[in-house]
Design goal:
This protein is about 65% helix and about 5% strand. It has about 90 residues and is mainly alpha-helical. The model has no long low-confidence stretch (mean pLDDT about 85).
Length: about 90
């Protein structure tokens, strides 16, 4: 079994998301130059910076998965027990 370090995972995902670096920087508050330096291997992110970027990547992946499921899946959720607001039924 092979394990990937957090740093290697972050670099791999930054490579996967090349066209999203500016949006990632803007939405996380991490400077675009910092994201670029991390991506280029010129900087090692601090733990708090890595966490911000990893959280953004996870949210991006969840949104992409929802978009891939399409509107039919969203209707099923809406009909399966009512709308929810912040985890509570509205």
């Amino acid at each position: 079994m092979s394990t990937e370090s957090i740093h290697d995972y972050l670099l791999r995902r930054l490579n996967d998301l090349k066209g999203h670096h500016n949006r990632m920087a803007e939405e996380t508050g991490v400077g675009q130059a910092t994201v670029s330096r991390i991506f280029a291997g010129q900087a090692m992110p601090r733990l708090d910076t890595a966490q911000l970027l990893l959280n953004w990547i996870a949210a991006h992946d969840r949104a992409a998965a929802r978009a891939q499921r399409g509107p039919r899946s969203a209707r099923r959720v809406a009909h399966a027990g009512g709308a929810r607001v912040n985890g509570a039924r509205a």
